[in-house]
TrEMBL record:
Name this protein carries in UniProt: Acetoin utilization protein AcuC
UniProt entry tagged with the keyword Cell cycle: no
Pfam families: Hist_deacetyl
Protein family per UniProt: Belongs to the histone deacetylase family.
Length: 391
């Protein structure tokens, strides 16, 4: 058994909304190149596996049949379907869109299967994490919701409880809505407050449907939240709710757009903090789930200096060969990245571990992040049997 499995195929680069669109395939290309330059593909603990073919039945595990037919129709005709979010500025119609989007679903489902069957402890799909797509509509660059499909596959294979952790700057609204009434799924989203960022959802008072109350956990952070306060917020919520929920598997989304250089959000979370949080998710998978962890990509639009660095380090973490923050970036990759983008890449993966203050050191009512954390704890913790102030 390999420690980690990376789902990869060059065809992933065909998920392409066209020139000028933020969801550029170069994000994936540069990540794969960087992982290769670091020698990760030579590690015995990492297995790179091509993506199996997808089917409409697989996509329909989380999407309405009429919607899948509409995507196929828009793909064939080139005509928009604005009611279903197809042909908008966010989700332009492009040739081959159904196959490209369904390939992401197939990859994330294969990742879920690998962790559940024991073929690998951890599995990674850096092209996945399309967390905004809903059962019957595209949204926010997301045509099909591969993250939800991975969760559903784990349930279908016998998981009693699955935790979905979303660290993207944007609320994981699509996954939350698909499992809103399912008590077997815990969704935890740490994001910029929806009052200041798309999709405008993710209020801490939104805690799940009647049959699944307190299984939706939303941490809505103010703009400009920095690395130290972001880690404080993640630590104040995530370990406690996961340990109380006791999942059989964890699916996590690691969009990098919380970074201060990202043009699509207003948080200020550095690479080192994002990798620290990823390591916490990894450790919780070992503590609670016998290692069963599916890690996905997601948003992230700083194509050179953020996305490939975070996702390459995510692959290394999954393979149990973590990269230190000060690790120099290989010159062969820096040269290729500069030629592709015209930008001068950073020289090192990150800087240094972030110094942050744990929640146990006390609540500060004058701090907007602390107030946001407490709002989440007040809405969710009592229903989980936890004390919002003490736990």
């Amino acid at each position: 058994m390999s420690v980690a499995r990376l789902l990869w195929s060059p065809e992933l680069l065909t998920y392409d909304f066209g020139p000028g669109h933020p969801m550029a395939p170069a994000r994936l290309d540069l990540t794969f190149r960087l992982a290769d330059a670091f020698g990760l593909f030579d590690e015995p603990s990492l297995e790179v596996v091509r993506i199996p073919p997808s089917t409409d039945d697989l996509v329909r595990t989380v999407h309405d049949g009429d919607y899948v037919a509409a995507v196929r129709r828009a793909d064939r005709t080139g005509e928009p379907d604005l009611v279903r979010g197809l042909g908008t500025e966010d989700n332009p119609v492009f040739a081959g869109m159904h196959e490209a989007a369904s390939r992401l679903v197939s990859a994330s489902v294969a990742a879920a299967e690998a962790t559940w069957t024991g073929a690998a402890e951890h599995a990674v799909n850096i092209a996945g994490g399309m967390h905004h797509a809903r059962r019957a509509a595209a949204s926010g660059f997301c045509l099909y919701n591969d993250a939800a499909a991975a969760v559903q596959r784990l349930l279908d294979l016998g998981a009693r409880r699955v935790a979905y952790v979303d660290l993207d700057a944007h609320h994981g609204d699509g996954v939350e809505s698909i499992f809103w009434d399912d008590p077997r799924v815990l969704t935890v989203s740490v994001h910029q407050d929806g009052r200041s960022l798309f999709p405008g959802t993710g209020n801490p008072a939104d805690t799940g449907g009647t049959a699944a109350d307190c299984t939706a956990v939303n941490v809505a952070l103010p703009p400009r939240t920095d690395s130290a306060r972001w880690l404080r917020a993640v630590d104040a919520i995530l370990p406690l709710v996961l340990r109380e929920f006791r999942p059989d598997a964890i699916v996590s989304q690691h969009g990098t757009d919380a970074h201060g250089n990202d043009p699509m959000a207003d948080l200020n979370v550095g690479i080192d903090a994002q990798l620290t949080a990823a390591s916490w998710v990894h450790d919780l998978a070992h503590e609670l789930c016998e290692g069963r962890w599916v890690a996905l990509g997601g948003g992230g639009y700083a194509v050179v200096d953020v996305v490939p660095l975070v996702w390459t380090a995510l692959v290394a973490l999954a393979a149990h060969v973590p990269l230190a923050p000060a690790t120099p970036l290989p010159e062969v990759w820096r040269t290729a990245a500069e030629e592709m983008s015209g930008l001068t890449p950073a020289r090192a993966l990150g800087k240094a571990p972030v110094v942050w203050r744990p929640w146990s050191e006390g609540y500060d009512p004058s701090d907007a992040v602390d107030r946001a954390v407490l709002a989440t704890r007040r809405h969710v913790f009592p229903g989980l049997g936890l004390d919002p102030f003490l736990d």
